Amino acid sequence: MTDLTQVKAEARKAAFARRKAAHATAGPAEAAHLSQVLAGHRGVPLSGYMAIRTEIDPLPAMEEAAAHGPVCVPVIQRLGLPLKFSRWTPGCALKEGPFGAMIPEVDDFIEPEILIVPLVAFDQRGGRLGYGGGFYDRTLEVLRAKRPTLAIGFAYAAQEAEALPLEPTDQPLDMIVTEAGVVEPGAS
Asked: Which residues bind substrate (predicted)?
């Protein structure tokens, strides 16, 4: 039997290839569905992310949301810790953070109630495969212990997998938004 770490590594490799292909053909309206979802949550503290490599870019939706309430982006403190979130505004000064993601130059930490979560792969049940550091899993566990926290996976439709190798510590997504529409796990 194959080790779960190896199974996850193989699933990531296949998903990265699908994401790269989808990214190469992406159009300018890829965040339209995300903007529509977020419009129903105006003013609620929101975490987006600054896209790296071939991640789908939530910036247009983040810019719209920033006109209505606080928006922040994740800041990695160090391996093994949950993320912190620094307030972001359109056009704010940025610096390079860990793993090459841009973060606000000035730390102004806030706690989001909605997280737009980047991912490598997702499934119809709300499963998410990330990069393997466990940052979002730890963070969602902490935030959800305090209050309801909405985790919105944002991905290309091509990143969908049939079934992901998941562990008990993997936090589920409440919905997944793609350029093609919205997937709500459990809603059939």
From this structure: 50, 55
Indicate which CATH number applies to the domain containing 164.
3.40.50.10420
Residue list, annotated binding site for ATP = 8-12, 128-136
Residue list for the binding site: 8-12, 50, 55, 128-136
Mean pLDDT split into 10-residue runs, the chain, 188 residues = 78 87 80 93 96 93 96 94 97 91 95 97 94 93 97 96 88 96 82
Residue in 11, 33, 29 with CA at minimum distance from that of residue 123: 11
Answer whether residue 147 is part of any domain: yes
The domain tally of the chain equals: 1
Rounded Cα distance, 13 and 150, in Å: 27
**Phi/psi at 16 (5° precision):** -60, -40
Residue 184 lies in a domain: no
Residue 183 lies in a domain: no
